[in-house]
Every structure is written in C-alpha cells, then in structure tokens.
Amino acid sequence: MQTALAHMDFHAAKALLDWQIELGADEPIGEAPVNRYEIAAEAPKPSAPAAPEAPVAAEPEADPVAAATEAAARAGSLEELAAAQAAFELCELKKGARNFVFADGNPEARVMILGEAPGRDEDMEGRPFVGRAGQLLDRMFAAIGLARTAHHADEALYITNVMPWRPPQNRDPDPAEIAMMLPFVKRHVELVNPDILVLMGNTPCAAALGKRGILRLRGSWTEAFGRPAMPMTHPAYLLRTPAAKREAWADLLDIKARLGELP
Ligand code: URA
Predict the structure, then answer these.
(1) What is the pLDDT of residues 128-178, one digit of tens each?
(2) pTM, two decimal places
(3) Which UniProt keywords apply (predicted)?
(4) Domain residues of the chain, as ranges?
(5) Exposure winner among 132, 154, 163, 240, fewest CB in 10 A?
(6) Could you tell me which residues are beta bridge partners of residue 231?
(7) Residue 250, class by beta-carbon neighbours within 10 Å (0-12 exposed, 13-18 middle, 19+ buried)?
(8) Which ligand 1 atom minimizes the distance to the CA of 159?
C-alpha cells in the first residue's frame, strides 16, 4: 500500500482514502502490525468496581420496654406521664386507635381501678370505662359509696387501664404490648399512690401479678406495686354472666371493709 501510494497523485490518494472511510475505516494503518489481542490484554483495566460501601450499622432495634421505662421514669406528674405515654411510638396499637385513653376520676382517690384496654366507646371518647361495662362499674362502686366524680378522696375513684389504646376488634393485648405499657402503669400507680388497687380482669392481673385466671384470683387480697390489690371479675364479664355478680358484690364489700381498716 505504501508503495502504491507513493506513486499516486494527491487526488487519487484522497479518493482512495474517502472510499476506505466510507467502508468504515476509522484509523490509519500503521507501519507495524498491531496485535490487538495484546492491546486488549494491556488495555487499562476498567476502574475497579466501587468498593462495597462499608456496611452501615443497622439501626439498633429500639427496645420498647427500655424506652418505656426511661420515658415513664422521667415523668414527675400525671400530666407529664400522660404526655410521655401519648408520645410513645413503639406500640402498634397506637396506629389503629382513634384516641389515647389515659384516665378518669379523682387522682386523690384512695381506690384506683386498673382495667384492661379501651373498647369502642372509650376509643371514641378518650375516657376509660364509659360504655356499658363502665356504667355497670359506676353502679357497682356507687353501691359502696365510691364515684369517679367525687371530690373527697374517701369517696373518690381513679380509673385507668393497662393499655391506653384500643386493640383491634377488642382482642386481648398480647404479652409484648402489656410488657411495654407496664413501666407506664407502675409509674401511674406511684404518682396516684392509692391505698387500694383493683385489678379488673385478666390483663391487669397479667400486668401486675404476672398471672392470669381471674376466676381463680378474684376475691383474694394480693399485693401489686407495693400495695394491697383486689382482683375482680371485669364488669363486661358480669354483663354476660349475671350469676357472677354475687361474688363481685362480696369483693366490693371486702374493699369497703379494707378501706375502713387502713389508716
Ligand atoms: N374495659 C376495660 O377494661 N376498660 C375500659 O376502659 C373499657 C372497657
């Protein structure tokens, strides 16, 4: 080619070049042969793939019981406790509930009732025990001279639940949900400081005593959070089982008698 080109005039050479370009030639042919396999071998290596990112330390799973314990311990008043519990984000029940249900009644009361969880009416209203079971509860305690509306501590009631959010379909709260609310319940009892605690149903017995089986537990004094506690059948159970009201009445009389004995 070199030799042939040497004898070509400029115009012939230009025409030949144009033709080669048209055929797809895109680089001049050098003097020496080129081994393209070597080139490929020597070709600069593609830049090394980016080093895998240093594993990002997985966000440690929040420990709901530890978080609740810390939040509850910081609360120095019922208002602060309510705010801390309402702001607690690690309980799934909160997402499905309409309202946060903290408490009702007189915080000076000598008797504090610990129920299970809000139902439909309580969730709508944001107050514990306002549905049919709540109305029965009011009548039961009125029979021994106690009311949530009373001003005097001796005649008053203070009412709360283990769970401040309604579980879907009113299912029982599960053990993990109870465990993460327990620090708030403990602090609640500490701040109210009642003489007597009434454990209304299985969930408060599970929370405060670590036991279930309300029909076995009811009617016998026990101790919860360092004070006398009486497990009682839940008023919702009494609505379904009127025959059990006799025993509930006996438990109420026992509470009244104990109030008389305590200083
Ligand atoms: N049952 C409960 O245990 N608590 C309520 O507030 C209402 C029904």
Answers:
(1) 999 999 999 999 999 999 999 999 999 999 999 999 999 999 999 999 999
(2) 0.78
(3) 4Fe-4S, DNA damage, DNA repair, Hydrolase, Iron, Iron-sulfur, Metal-binding
(4) 65-261
(5) 240
(6) 199
(7) exposed
(8) 6
